[in-house]
Design brief:
Layout (H helix, E strand, L loop, with lengths): L1 H13 L2 H67 L2 H10 L7 H17 L5 E6 L4 E5 L16 H8 L4 E6 L12 E9 L9 E10 H8 L9 E5 L5 E4 L21 E6 L6 E6 L1 H52 L14 H39 L4 H17 L3 H17 L6 E3 H16 L6 E6 L8 E3 L4 H10 L8 E10 L2 E8 L6 H11 L13 H12 L4 E7 L3 E9 L9
Parallel strand pairs: 11-13
Antiparallel strand pairs: 1-2, 1-5, 3-4, 4-5, 6-7, 6-9, 8-9, 10-12, 13-14, 14-16, 15-16
Helix pairs in contact: 2-7, 9-10, 10-11
Amino acid sequence: MNRIRDAIRNRYRNIGSFYKMTILFEIVLLASLVFILGFSVRSFSLILKEKEIALGEDRVEDLADFIQGEYNRVYSLGNYIHSGDIYQIISRINASETEAYDYKNISDMQVFFSGISYADNCISDVILISQRDTVYSYTRQASYEVNPSYLFLDDDTIKEFLDSEDSLRIIYDDPTRYCIREREPVISFMGKIYDASLFPKKNTIGLYLMNLPLSQVEQTLHFADDSSRGEIFLLNRDGQIIYSTDAAAAGNRFEEKNGSSGREVYVSAKNLGTSGLSVHYRLSEEILSSQINYIQKRINLILAAAILVTLLFSFWISQVFQKKMNLLLSSMEEVQKGNFENRLPVDSQDEIGRISQSFNEMCEKLNIYVEQVYKSEIQRKTAEINALQTQIDPHFLYNTLESIKAKALANSDEDAAEMITILGNMFRWSSRTSVKMVALEEELEYVKNYLVLQSYRYNRQMEISIDVAEEFLDAVVPKLILQPIVENVIKHALDEVDRKKLVGIHARQKGEVLELTIYDNGKGISEDKLQQICEKLNEAKTQDEFDSIGLQNVNQRLKLMFGMQYGLQIRSIEGFGTAVKIRLPFAMQDLSRE
């Protein structure tokens, strides 16, 4: 068992996250649907039962009212027979058979039948029978009229009724036996005709039959049109079913019928006064269960279809997301191998789309960073190689310069001696190749020495202005960041100027940025030329592509070291001068050394 559990656990661990989410979603959905289905079926069962009972009760009331009305009319007709001319005609016929053919008697009978036809259009047959078995009859449809030769007094049902103490009996009957054509079953009202002149003595002189077709009950009450599933029974005094919504039950005796669980869901009954009739309603468990089972099967079918569609849709969604995740994972593996050029397609704004967008931005930044670091390192190595290629033994250089200085002093040439001293100091400072960052004060001292040497070219007719506040002197700057720009001024700006030459350096802080401005009063730069220089500054070129360290090199060094927001800015007015602004982070810290 533990082995099986471990195997299932390991298999579950290897399943993708989206598949796990799909499985969990389906389990929760299935549990929810089963709960909802059970609750719905239970609720529906109660509602269905209440609906069936209410509908059955309405049907009981409708049938009871209808039958009670028919019974009252038949009872009234019976009283009319005993109080009018009808019983007298029957008495005369019993005394003399020839009375049956008397015109007046026949005419009175026709009037009586017409009155019944008008008073109650539900009664299909009215039959009057004398003790001589003389028959007067009326049938609403002439083609189904009563057979005049039928011997009613020999009929077992009628003989049993005549022998009983009942004055009126209501039974289920088939009139086909005494009609000329096959007839549908009827509710038959059989009543005895007494000699009213002998009242209260009950001397039977004949009987009457009034038939109510079962189809007339259905048509009048519209039982065939409703959706009730319960059974309706109309019983006579003897417990015979004289009408039922189940046609096969009519004519049989009513029996209590239990469902498969040994009980009925609902049973009710209503008695109809002195008629002895009663209406019963029975809603069996089988009938109710069959309805519920039918609906439950339909719901189960819909539920299964819904689960199948949900499974397919969830599987499709998980496949789409899994595909995107696999692509993201493979791209991450490529980045791990050092390939920063890989990009993910972003075709949505969902979680995967945002992750892909962030991944692309990360790769872009990594690519830029690596390129910056790589280029900075290449330029540093290139500068070191160039320095090594031109390196002269410092001791040899310093000894030689000291010899030249002694020779100049021996010849009383103080200018030459000063120039040699300055040049020696510059070589001594620049030969410290391991130092990459220096204090601004040292960088300014080196540039000042350089400008002093250059001033001898112009017979000391060049003014040097270094306006840097003491608070900026300990700021850290890249080594040799000012000299290339000052060299560019001497080389391109001052040679063609007749007025006294000026080179100045100014420093200021702007937020977290240190701005160093080198300015001159040289010939300036035309607008077109200035635009070309600014465009060239932004081109990424390595040091080997230039003849000397210049503006491009300084600009690229600043951007590679500190970021694209730093570098050089140039402003110039042709004929008046030029200003080059160096922007770099302002930092006060110990100088870093390799």
